[in-house]
User: What shape does this take?
Amino acid sequence: MKTLIIYNSVHQGNTKKIAERMGKVLKAKLVKPDEIGLKEILNYDLIGFGSGIYMWRHHRSLLDFVNRLPDLKDKRVFVFSTAGKPDKLSHRRLKEKLESKGADIVGEFSCEGLDKFGPLRLIGGINKGRPNQKDLKNAEGFAKKLIKKM
Ligand SMILES: Cc1cc2nc3c(=O)[nH]c(=O)nc-3n(C[C@H](O)[C@H](O)[C@H](O)COP(=O)(O)O)c2cc1C
Assistant: This one.
């Protein structure tokens, strides 16, 4: 199974840690949205899309990338994020875009990430040390489940 993970992690590198752990389990190639051709992604059997959450949605670079993708009919994909306060709603925008391309969303994962947005910086941020070892283990478990689904 050929797996690709497309991610961006601009705030604290939180999502990068999750992407790398999933990538290890899935033996995936990891790229940023500007590091891969739009058609090239069709060579993969499973594609992950992840970033931190900014104003209740994934990073703009990831959403813009998905907008430009060709048809993804029946392509298996998964969605992940780290966030100050993870919630399913923040995945909605990305999921809708992927679904509108015909992709089959086979899983989603989110966990807390260190958040120093705005005034939070004054107290050293919230979710200190996250993602932690437990979060990484959970990401690993999620990736293992994906393999079983394929
Ligand atoms: C400008 C900005 C906006 C953010 N907006 C949200 C938000 O709407 N919801 C949330 O739960 N976290 C929010 N966060 C926290 C980030 O999602 C969190 O720190 C995430 O782990 C960052 O991932 P990264 O280090 O991979 O970029 C925001 C952070 C920044 C800097």
About this structure: The first helix runs from residue 14 to 26. The CA atoms of residues 73 and 126 lie 39 Å apart. The beta strands are 3-8, 29-31, 46-52, 76-83, 104-112. The first strand starts at residue 3 and ends at 8.
